[in-house]
């Protein structure tokens, strides 16, 4: 979005206090996740549970100067206010206006199960053909839907949005804001049924979303099928109805035996029949695939293309997560929600595993008003069919019906009681299904049952990363763009995970070193512009195919790349980035080449998106004079080139330390790398940043070494007194250089430093913990984070932080935390 305060006030009938001409591009509603304060307004949302107004002072502290609120707080100075009658209605009204003026092709998804999976699948299949905007996560409520819609911008051609309701009469409000041209009604289950008089009422409420849809795809279970044709269709006769489902009466269905794995799946699409290869054969996945096929056919995809798209689907986070457990168990964790349908799905899922014995943890089913006896009769029938070895029931309600369950059955009031009973940790060689309502927090059982293969982890704190980005932004003009350098697997931390997070937080550009890195990001759904710093000669076709933007640093590259553009049939001006050599002597065009370069650029069909250079020593104060020279050359040569080509590309020259040390030379964009990970050479700046990376492990064993005894290979440590030694499971194969053994380096335990003793082994090393009280086996050891810091660790290794990070072996599991 992109509106002035004045426009917003007119659209929504709100009152303005302050500057009406300020522009708003983002509306933030959660004070903890504010990516950028520029053009951002904070909306204090009031619901009956919570008031966002209590966060107004903290967002003002963060630098926000536009507040949307139901009340005006005059004590804050220099703040621009949009005063609204009702914050939620304001959001809905603005979203409606924004959606209606966008002229976007749109898909609206509602139903009880499968909304998010289908939204993600559709997105993965369609974004390449149509620039697509979708609801983040499952933002589908009275507040989530408007926030999702406000993300639409001019570049989008298609919007895929989820819509969720839990009460009667909610859909009308949502339909008023969002009227999808293509409707998708997924499986209807019993979630929220308690709030409705009948299942029929619930279905009819959901169908209201599709009042103005041209086409409605719906999961044609018998009841929905009948209701759609009897009640919906006479009212909204201009909608084309298409049903899908495994049952043959549907327009899109399956006519082969899905259990026969020697046969491809044979699809019936109206009168057409065709085969697809699909590995996952459970009914839920296949039904979702049918919906996907319907919509892709609607976009006129050929059957070959549909097969291709299905092959490319990432196995979307299925709600059911299966993990390796202790004692050779498999743990299937579905502690997300619980109703009869999701229980059926989960039970069906169990049969996909080759384990003869199984156990079940099941909690009260909440929110059902009907007769409890009937409910648990049905539940116990389903469960008894599966012949569980043991069944653990948690909750007062379900416990009353324990005699209905035929397996060995135990009852508990709450999850803690089950943990304390120690029953679970005795189970061996079984599949254990955890199925519970969220309130019971049975995911805690997963932590107990999970086999911890990864004692050693590299933990990446995404909140800290965001903090660091925001800190650097705070030094810049609000209009300066930012490119995040995610080359070399994002400095070893995982380029997809970091890029996805940054994309969500509206980073302007991403930078990678090689084409493969860019391709990987595109394949996984990253749509932000990506610059490839070192496009190799054989990869130009791929650059174009995946919509990547090359750095052009020499005539050779320019000519070869342009040849590839022409061959590809690309008919618009291809975006490229011109690198100028200013003193680093790595890559780039030199002074004397600029004339010829501008002539070439003017002759061919490319668009110079940016002109840039790189500073060799922006982190070294004593090289200030040299850096100034580089900056002067950049200013002079980029200005010259711009004059010659006659338009203004983005200019950028600063890396992280450039941002802090040469802020005046920010031009239109900066390129952040190590700074977002919390590193700086300067202690005043370092203090403002948060460490992002934590390399951790746990103690495998503690031994007492007597006077004269030795530790490790070659006996390089010999105790001169009785010494407590701990062994930890990381070694040089994990990326710890062997040269920091023998008391050169230390690791952290409970805020103390423990020196590494003897030689570092391939997979282990030993540390001296003599001076540290209360250390036990299994305790956490920090290889670096705070103490020692990444920087101190790099000093042990006599290298720079960059090399430490990129040397950590891929076998170390990366985990990402954010709240
Ligand atoms: C890696 C890289 C950066 C980022 O450098 P940091 O020092 O990590 O901020 C910026 N620009 C270019 C061209 C790079 O290759």
Summarize the structure in words.
Helices cover 32% and strands 22% of the residues. It has 819 residues and is of the alpha/beta class. It folds into five domains: 3-90, Udp-n-acetylmuramoylalanyl-d-glutamate--2,6- Diaminopimelate Ligase, Chain: A, domain 1 (3-Layer(aba) Sandwich); 102-312, UDP-N-acetylmuramoyl-L-alanine:D-glutamate ligase; 321-452, Protein-Tyrosine Phosphatase, Chain A; 460-688, Alanine racemase (TIM Barrel), CATH 3.20.20; 693-817, Lyase, Ornithine Decarboxylase, Chain A, domain 1. The strands form nine sheets. An eight-stranded parallel β-sheet has the order 30-29-28-27-26-25-24-31. Strands 9-10-8-11-12-13 form a six-stranded parallel β-sheet, with helices on both faces. Strand 17 (321-324) and strand 18 form a beta hairpin. It is globular, with a radius of gyration of 30 Å. Mean pLDDT is 91; it is low at 315-319. It binds pyridoxal-5'-phosphate. Pyridoxal-5'-phosphate binds next to strand 31.
Morphology: globular
On the 0 to 100 scale, the average pLDDT is 91
Classify the helix fraction into a percent range.
25-40%
* Total discrete domains: 5
Spans of at least 5 consecutive residues whose pLDDT stays below 50 are: 315-319
Q: CA-to-CA gap between the ends?
A: 26 Å
Hetero groups: pyridoxal-5'-phosphate
Q: Going by CATH, what is the homologous superfamily of the largest domain?
A: Alanine racemase
CATH architecture heading of the largest domain = Alpha-Beta Barrel
